[in-house]
Amino acid sequence: MTGMSTEPVDLTTALDTFDALWSPRVLARVNDHDVRVAKVRGEHVWHRHDNTDEFFLVLSGHLDIALRAPDRVVTLPRGSVFVVPRGAEHKPSSAEGATILMVELTGTLTVGDRHDPLPGHVDVTTGHEL
Amino acid sequence: MTGMSTEPVDLTTALDTFDALWSPRVLARVNDHDVRVAKVRGEHVWHRHDNTDEFFLVLSGHLDIALRAPDRVVTLPRGSVFVVPRGAEHKPSSAEGATILMVELTGTLTVGDRHDPLPGHVDVTTGHEL
């Protein structure tokens, strides 16, 4: 993480360093929170975070977030933001692919504290270093 | 704040709701942190936040952040991010103007806990509601 908080980081340059889907990179740390970026395409998995809200900003493409109780899908085009409240079951997906920026507590697992059985393409991580 | 965490918000639409410079709007809350957006042009004021880091993402334009010890200016073009660590004296400026997104503890004052004498154009706020 050396240098992450002392030098600026260009988003495009950061995104060019990896291709893995659903595998967030930690772009910056702000107090006890991470700012992460990820490339996504296809479906993630139903999960929930018991101890953290999760902020999403769509940098490119189009992200859907399915929610329960009541069942609905929030559609996020490029340039839109949304917060999934702690405890809310959700499943992100992106038919065409997207790049996203997230803010959540440091240490938050990509698959949350409770989740459906994991498909092989979902990376279980608290965020990789850039 | 009703609806802020339950419906998506479009960044451009949010930015179109105000013209005031150096006067952040709270776009979203994530746990005990705010995600704020602001329009800036000209010079802010030297200040520091004793209890929070401050994350910057430049959405459009060009932001400079002057820092001390050692004296330097970090230049942030569109699409770049930077974290000013807690306790670090800093002065944002933008000769041509910029729109920025910030992440910091809810309740953080725009002018910090210690600051130089305030010019009239600097809004002293913990962030206005959208």
Automatic annotation (TrEMBL), chains A, B:
Native source organism of the sequence: Actinosynnema mirum (strain ATCC 29888 / DSM 43827 / JCM 3225 / NBRC 14064 / NCIMB 13271 / NRRL B-12336 / IMRU 3971 / 101)
Domain Cyclic nucleotide-binding, first and last residues per copy: 42-82
PROSITE patterns in UniProt: CNMP_BINDING_3
CDD domains associated with the record: cupin_YdbB-like
Highest taxon, organism lineage: Bacteria
InterPro entries membership: cNMP-bd_dom, Cupin_2, PKS_Associated_Protein, RmlC-like_jellyroll, RmlC_Cupin_sf
SUPFAM superfamilies in the record: RmlC-like cupins
Protein name stated in the entry: Cyclic nucleotide-binding protein
PANTHER family in UniProt: 16.7 KDA PROTEIN IN WHIE LOCUS (PTHR36114)
